[in-house]
Write a structure and sequence with these properties.
It holds the Pfam family Molybdopterin. Its cofactor is [4Fe-4S] cluster; Mo-bis(molybdopterin guanine dinucleotide). Belongs to the prokaryotic molybdopterin-containing oxidoreductase family. Keywords: 4Fe-4S, Iron, Iron-sulfur, Metal-binding, Molybdenum, Oxidoreductase. The protein is an alpha/beta fold. Helix content is 35%, strand content 16%. It contains 30 helices and 32 strands. The strands form nine sheets. A six-stranded mixed β-sheet has the order 6-5-18-17-16-7. Strands 23-31-28-30-29-32 form a six-stranded mixed β-barrel. A five-stranded parallel β-sheet has the order 12-9-8-14-15. Helix 12 packs across helix 16. It starts with 15 loop residues before the first strand and ends in an 11-residue tail after the last strand.
Length: 773
């Protein structure tokens, strides 16, 4: 089964730049999907997996959380190019054996990029590195769990951190948070903290639920769709089908983004003859190329203009009946939006007054509006106020609980929303904790734990003894890379439940374990009660089953629920009131517990076996009601705010490549932007480039400024590109080292990946980052 891994790593001198594309998908996407699958997993594993992805009784794509229809027929190929890459990555027949680890010391691996590490293949055996060792070596599962138990019991619960990746399935996540709380800690940071935490922080107090309020079918009935701070062509390609269909029915689609992404303009549907032949369906009817951080000003301007239009034509714009019946705070909001500083608004947004008014009139005329957003809105200091302004607009026109309308935060990872539903949160509600205590006979801690940013601070202060990572790549995913990596290496034990090597394995604690686990595509059939399946939640609150079909690459892999159960037994002992063994042996037992603990999961085991799964309750969508503390939807008032770069600086945002998913690199071809074979690039507006005194393709070092301190990242190449004026873009995670740990979204504490103030200097051979001084 072994397939050789590529030996070559990234050489930034190989960078190739071509013209950006103006449409997404098409025949090229199909060819790349097949090519990557065959190279990684071979024809048989590739075809068997692709036939089952996102199908009834198949497995959920390990990529994004965009839903499938629960009312219509599924397409034969219910996946996109990046989904195919994610599947190929996991279904890989390449293997990382103990012999591989023996050949590669930690010193060797520290110089490797994430691209090289991830391309080596699936880890086959539990591995350990002890203090003073130069290489990982194999360890038995029994000794691995014994090691975890000894380290956890040698410290205190508050010095243990349990991190979770969005790939984790519902049943695993439920057991994982139960383990942490049984131990006595709410230190449960997860990838939500770094992406959509701002969304939940804004939505919960305003509409009473931290999730979106639309279904996929709403896209069939809408008049107007906003796609804000989001790049669906790369990050959620299946969304393009819904947008293209909406356009064909006459809906307007407004894209709001600093970069003119290919997926905004055209979609070559690879499941139609026209799409395969190169015919592109139009996507956005309007494109607002906004400055990074200007969205709050834009939505405040829309609110002002809608209220002015209502004055001119009473009863045609504002839904007064809805507002009076189920909302609070409208008068204060109306007063706050009574005036508008147009000069400040145009400066903040980079848009003209005419552009803003034109789109506001689309809003005024729309009878059903959906506003979609992603990380472009959630990773700035004023992210939460920005998202509250979106809710204000939706409340203003009664865009909740009616066909074709609502809020749509588009989640980026397959089960990141489900993990939060299952209780993965450092700030749990009393309702959840009381239900857990009643169900299991434990006493859950009430003190809040660490989120991802607080965990970074704890590492820096040497307040983390044990760090357990359920999937993910915490070292590269978070901000302030150098400080985080140094802190992780001072921890007494790091545990990584993983499928492939990654950077976090290399910047390990004094003792470190790698526990290889099954992936979504793998069969999970080594149980007394037979083969098992898991469940996930998509971006629109649909719970559905996921069941892998491929033979695992090694007999030494364990399923994630089994790993959690055995960790719990090693830490808590056999006399603990929770029956961990029963849950590991039969996942129906886990679901029975979930049913009794979490609202909305009544009759879980029966309903999850329905071919379409089931939809969780959503009061704003289902009954036009709002479970806030006041029982109403809440208008809010926020001050005008925007990002403004200091003299000589530009505003930097991070982004993904088209050949990337979070910290996983599938390849080096950001095809839609015309960037190939390199990643350390800065996309810069031609006018800004001229003003810096540098030229296209010049090699520079990037210096970020925050709170009087500087961070430095070396050897980036400037690429002239049609970005918004005053704004530049670089790939995540290469630019993460530039994000100061205190540069976060207020309230949500999400890192400010879209809010860095940077300048460029000629490249020198200086250290990778200038420390605080």
């Amino acid at each position: 089964m072994h397939r050789s891994a590529p030996k070559k790593d990234i050489n930034e001198d190989d960078l190739k730049v071509s013209e950006p594309k103006h449409a997404a998908a098409g025949l090229k996407a199909v060819m790349v999907s097949m090519e990557r699958g065959f190279a990684e997993a071979g024809p048989s594993r590739t075809l068997r997996s692709m036939l089952r992805v996102n199908q009834h009784d198949g497995f959920d794509c390990p990529g994004c959380a965009w839903p499938e229809s629960i009312t219509g027929k599924r397409k034969p190929a219910e996946f996109c190019e990046n989904g195919a890459k994610a599947i190929a990555e996991e279904a890989s027949a390449r293997t990382v054996t103990p012999e591989w680890f023996a050949q590669h010391s930690i010193e060797d691996l520290r110089d490797k990029t994430e691209y090289w590490l991830g391309s080596q293949g699936r880890i086959t055996t539990p591995m350990i590195i002890r203090e003073g060792d130069t290489h990982y070596s194999p360890i038995s599962w029994a000794e691995a769990f014994s090691t975890i138990g000894a380290h956890v019991n040698a410290t205190t619960p508050d010095k243990c951190v349990f991190y979770t990746s969005g790939r984790t399935a519902n049943e695993t996540a439920f057991m994982y948070q139960l383990l942490a709380r049984s131990l006595g800690t709410n230190n449960l940071p997860d990838c939500s903290n770094m992406c959509h935490e701002s969304s939940g922080t804004a939505l919960n107090p305003t509409i009473g639920i931290g999730k979106g309020t639309v279904s996929l079918e709403d896209f069939e009935h809408t008049d107007l769709i906003f796609v804000v701070g989001q790049n669906p062509g790369t990050n959620h390609p299946r969304m393009l089908s819904a947008l293209a269909d909406a356009r064909k029915r006459g809906a307007r689609v407004v894209a709001v983004n600093p970069l003119p992404e290919a997926g905004f303009f055209g979609f070559k549907d690879p499941q139609t003859v026209g799409g395969m032949l190169g015919k592109a369906d139009p996507i956005s009817s309007d494109f607002l190329q906004i400055k990074v951080g200007g969205d709050l000003a834009l939505f405040q301007a829309f609110g002002h203009l809608l209220l002015e239009e209502e004055k001119k034509h009473p009863g045609t714009v504002v839904d007064h009946e809805f507002i009076a019946a189920v909302t609070d705070g409208f008068e204060a909001y109306k007063d706050a939006r009574a005036t508008l500083d147009w000069d400040a608004t145009e400066k903040a947004t980079g848009l003209t007054r005419t552009q803003i008014i034109e789109i506001a009139m689309l809003l005024a005329k729309s009878k059903a509006t959906i506003i979609c957003w992603a990380l472009g809105l959630t990773q700035q200091p004023h992210s939460v106020p920005t998202l509250k302004e979106i809710i204000n607009l939706l409340l203003l026109q009664g865009n909740f609980g009616k066909p074709g309308a609502g809020a749509c935060p588009v989640r980026g990872h397959s089960n990141v929303q489900g993990d939060r539903t299952m209780g993965i949160w450092e700030k749990p509600t009393e309702q959840l904790l009381a239900a857990l205590d009643a169900e299991f006979g434990i006493e859950s801690p009430r003190a809040h734990g660490y989120d991802s940013t607080e965990a970074l601070h704890a590492f820096e202060k040497d307040e983390v003894d044990v760090f357990v990572s359920m999937g993910g790549n915490f070292a590269l995913a978070n901000s302030d890379t150098e400080a985080l990596e140094a802190g992780m290496q001072r921890a007494k034990l790091t545990v990584h439940i993983s499928t492939k090597p990654n950077r976090s394995h290399v910047v390990h604690g004094k003792t470190s374990l790698i526990l290889p686990t099954l992936g979504r595509t793998d069969k999970d059939d080594k149980h007394p009660s037979g083969a098992q399946f898991l469940s996930v939640e998509d971006s629109m609150s649909v719970i559905k089953s996921t069941r892998g079909r491929l033979t695992p690459v090694s007999d030494h892999l364990l399923a994630e629920p089994v790993i959690v159960a055995r960790m719990a037994q090693a830490i808590l002992g056999d006399n603990h009131p929770v029956n961990w063994r029963a849950m590991a042996e039969d996942y129906d037992v886990i679901r029975d517990h979930i049913e009794r603990v979490l609202p909305g999961f009544e009759d879980f085991n029966r309903r999850v076996r329905d071919k379409n799964g089931f939809v969780l309750p959503n009061p704003p969508r289902d009954t036009r009601s709002f479970a806030t503390d006041i029982g109403k939807g809440r208008f809010t008032v926020s001050e005008f705010e925007a990002l403004e770069a200091p003299e000589g600086h530009l505003i930097l945002q991070t982004m993904r490549s088209h050949d990337q998913y979070n910290t996983t690199f599938y390849g080096l071809d950001d095809r839609y932007r015309g960037i190939k074979d390199g990643r350390r690039v800065i996309l810069i507006n031609p006018e800004d480039l001229a003003e810096t005194g540098f030229s296209d393709r010049d090699l520079v070092d990037v210096i970020s400024t925050f709170a009087g301190t500087e961070r430095r990242a070396n050897r980036f190449r400037l690429v002239s590109y049609p970005t918004a004026k005053g704004c530049v873009a670089a790939y995540y995670p290469e630019a993460n080292a530039l994000v100061h740990r205190d540069l976060v979204a207020r309230e949500s504490n999400t890192p400010g990946f879209k809010a860095m103030m940077v300048r460029f200097v000629e490249h020198t051979q200086q250290p990778g980052r200038t420390l605080d001084s």
